[in-house]
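User: Please write out a complete single-protein record containing the residue sequence and its fold in token form, without commentary.

AI:
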Amino acid sequence: MKHDFQMYLTTSVAEDGTESYTAAGMKFTLLQAQKLLEWNWGNKKSESYIKYCKDRSKVNCSKMKNKELLVEENGLYKSVDKAEAKAAYGGPISFVTRQDLDAAYDSGADDKAVLYSMPVGTIQGSALVVTITRYVYMKVVVDPSTNDVIEAVVPGIGKTYVEGLTGADLRSLADCD
């Protein structure tokens, strides 16, 4: 069956894999759903949140240059350390707790850019006789003062699908075309 509307939820994932939802994460999700609906209304067609993020990234990516990027302290891919991440990004970046990330989002700070990671699908692979299913993640950078998407790492050809940020993700966020 086809659905009328779909929106992805941003989660916080503990080391044991347990997912939880914060009030700020839900606020982010609901405000982004509203922005997507308004964008679709203006375009007179129904597009996905992924297409919305791609479009908004093209329009707003230049706004990243004036903001400090806030990333959850455990938001890096397992093979990337903070020094490598700072070098790959090349701009002001801070690693903060989920509570501090949510607080910056809730504050409406205009000098910050907050990164939320959200599962947008699954991918399957086989290892011998076992089928492994993993989540595919999109990373969305939002301006807390406007709730505008200013950048996104959308999984696809040449883009990562893992939950944590990779060096390639950070270079992509820093390279506004």
In short: Residues 23-43 form the longest helix (21 residues). The mean pLDDT is 87.
